[in-house]
Amino acid sequence: MGNGINHNAGGGKTYHCGASDWIDNSGLGEADFGAEDWATIEQARAEDWEIKKGTQYIQTSGKWEGEFSVFRARLDLDAICKKHDIYQDM
Known about the structure:
Distance between the termini: 8 Å
Number of strands: 5
Radius of gyration: 13 Å
Strand content: 25-35%
Strand order of the largest sheet: 1-4-5
Order of helices and strands: EEHHEEEH
Helix content: 25-40%
Shape: globular
Oligomer: single chain
Mean pLDDT: 88
């Protein structure tokens, strides 16, 4: 995939946060994260894992497994995934 570019969601659009899928599928739970990280995860979950208007996020696009794909992630969840080595083969 290409290099990530920071964006600020606007225009009333919402996007799914791709980092949330990695967190959900990581097998990690509350005990694996610090209190601050877990609070961020719980807040994102309460917001249905969406990137809402005004939320900063990273966007990466390109071919993934032969198909064009766009990956978007909230900056806070992206940082948690990187901190805890949740992303694999990315």
